[in-house]
């Protein structure tokens, strides 16, 4: 749907009106036959029809194009009243800037920001409403640290709330201790398995070293025996030499 023509100040060219809703074009598109429509209007029309609502020429969504630049400029320059005029806003601005103004307009109806509150209030009055809203929250005046709603003031019991909080903390701590315990046991088991594997490897290495040592000692004894034999042979040869 387009912008209500009653909101505009002065004359609005016929070419800037939607051919379907007859209001001023909103987010406009143009058909090849040069008739212009609001995007929402023409998309809704083409769900049930396949032609232009003005001259019945065949059109398709893929043939729709943005408005000519000069028409777009004329459209943006139109002056209109804020939609919150009925609530007291007297702002008149161009169509190009109306959306930005209305997003920030002090007369806009906005919802209360407190959870559970369904009141719609003017933006300019929101702060005053929040100060008295029955769904407003505040910190307990007795110092327990809880945030309470005004509607719960008579039901709030600091001792009961703190006891509940203490029980929750206690349960949470027990769970964390159990988790830490399981984690430590898992780590100890992993380290124990690693140490057993390491011990087995070291034991095998020790046995291998012992075996090598034994072979080396045997070789040394053989060498020493061969050396004695060689010395004896030399001594015998020396004696024989002397006798000769």
TrEMBL record:
A zinc finger (TRAF-type) spans 101-144. Pfam families: zf-C3HC4_2 (PF13923), zf-TRAF (PF02176). GO terms for molecular function: ligase activity; zinc ion binding. Gene3D superfamilies: Zinc/RING finger domain, C3HC4 (zinc finger) (3.30.40.10). Residues 101-144 form the TRAF-type domain. Residues 192-243 form a coiled coil. InterPro entries: Znf_RING, Znf_RING/FYVE/PHD, Znf_RING_CS, Znf_TRAF. Keywords: Coiled coil, Ligase, Metal-binding, Zinc, Zinc-finger. Residues 18-56 form the RING-type domain. One of its GO terms (biological process) is regulation of canonical NF-kappaB signal transduction. Transmembrane segments: none annotated. This is RNF41 ligase. It comes from Edolisoma coerulescens. The gene is Rnf41_1.
